[in-house]
């Protein structure tokens, strides 16, 4: 069983790398962001709170995120292990996580701020089906329309320069201490997130001593 945490700023490609690893090693990808967005799309009470928070460019409260992660991991559908994305976000959460679960490594995708801004502000989301696009690397066949359902592509509510700047400040303030905690336990593999997805995946597997990636 393999259990990994993947960390990095928004736009660093965490979801893409999780997908490449998940398929080959039968890992369960647990994305806190995806869970929160699902609540928003389904108009739950949690979703209403999340929408207000994200629109303001802030991060969802630690208590809420912690409870979501705890509930998700208690489902125990990760027979071969998991990749968790979006957690832990601070030292308190990291302590809870290390007390509860043994992990095999922390994958840290490192991306400069200017590249983060370029990638994040190019993201688009289908308003109808939720399919993700990026105008740099994954453009739709017809501009402004979803390839799957033909729905209108829109920017996420929190993908604005102001909201992104606030998230980056919060990320560095809270997440860097988490990385330092994991580094003291020799868990962290830092990988340059600027190359293409295949090159990043090869570097991850080499650093974790996993079988080589075959595109």
From TrEMBL:
Enzyme Commission code: 2.7.4.3
Binding positions (AMP): 37, 58-60, 86-89, 93, 156, 167
InterPro entries: Adenyl_kin_sub, Adenylat/UMP-CMP_kin, Adenylat_kinase_CS, Adenylate_kinase_lid-dom, ADK_active_lid_dom_sf, P-loop_NTPase
Transmembrane domains' residue ranges: none
Family that this chain belongs to: Belongs to the adenylate kinase family.
GO CC annotation terms, alphabetical: cytoplasm
GO molecular function: AMP kinase activity; ATP binding; zinc ion binding
Binding site for Zn(2+): 126, 129, 146, 149
Protein name, as recorded: Adenylate kinase
GO biological process, one term: AMP salvage
Enzymatic class: transferase
Pathway listed: Purine metabolism; AMP biosynthesis via salvage pathway; AMP from ADP: step 1/1
Record flagged with keyword Nucleotide-binding: yes
Gene3D superfamilies in UniProt: P-loop containing nucleotide triphosphate hydrolases (3.40.50.300)
Region (NMP): 31-60
Organism: Asanoa ishikariensis
Task of the protein: Catalyzes the reversible transfer of the terminal phosphate group between ATP and AMP. Plays an important role in cellular energy homeostasis and in adenine nucleotide metabolism.
Classification via CDD domains: ADK
UniProt keywords, alphabetically: ATP-binding, Cytoplasm, Kinase, Metal-binding, Nucleotide biosynthesis, Nucleotide-binding, Transferase, Zinc
Ranges where the record places region LID: 122-159
Gene behind this protein: adk
NCBIfam families: adk
Residue numbers binding ATP: 11-16, 123, 195
Cellular compartments annotated: Cytoplasm
Catalysed reaction, written as an equation: AMP + ATP = 2 ADP
Subunit structure as annotated in this protein's UniProt entry: Monomer.
Domain Adenylate kinase active site lid per the UniProt entry, residue ranges: 123-158
Domain notes: Consists of three domains, a large central CORE domain and two small peripheral domains, NMPbind and LID, which undergo movements during catalysis. The LID domain closes over the site of phosphoryl transfer upon ATP binding. Assembling and dissambling the active center during each catalytic cycle provides an effective means to prevent ATP hydrolysis. Some bacteria have evolved a zinc-coordinating structure that stabilizes the LID domain.
């Amino acid at each position: 069983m393999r259990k990994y945490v993947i960390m990095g700023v928004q736009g660093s490609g965490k979801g893409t790398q999780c997908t490449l690893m998940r398929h080959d090693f039968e890992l369960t990808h647990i994305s806190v962001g995806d869970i929160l967005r699902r609540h928003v799309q389904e108009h739950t009470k949690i979703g209403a709170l999340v929408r207000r928070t994200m629109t303001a460019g802030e991060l969802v409260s630690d208590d809420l995120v912690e409870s979501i992660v705890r509930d998700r991991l208690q489902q125990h559908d990760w027979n071969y292990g998991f990749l968790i994305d979006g957690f832990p976000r601070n030292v308190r959460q990291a302590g809870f996580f290390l007390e509860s679960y043994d992990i095999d490594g922390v994958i840290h995708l490192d991306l400069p701020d200017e590249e983060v801004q370029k990638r994040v502000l190019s993201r688009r989301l289908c308003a109808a089906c939720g399919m993700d696009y990026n105008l740099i690397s994954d453009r739709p066949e017809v501009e402004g329309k979803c390839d799957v359902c033909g729905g209108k592509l829109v920017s996420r509510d929190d993908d604005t320069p102001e909201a992104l700047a606030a998230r980056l400040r919060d990320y560095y303030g809270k997440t860097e201490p988490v990385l330092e905690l994991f580094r003291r336990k020799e868990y962290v593999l830092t990988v340059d997130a600027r190359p293409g997805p295949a090159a990043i995946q090869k570097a991850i597997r080499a650093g974790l001593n996993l079988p080589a990636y075959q595109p």
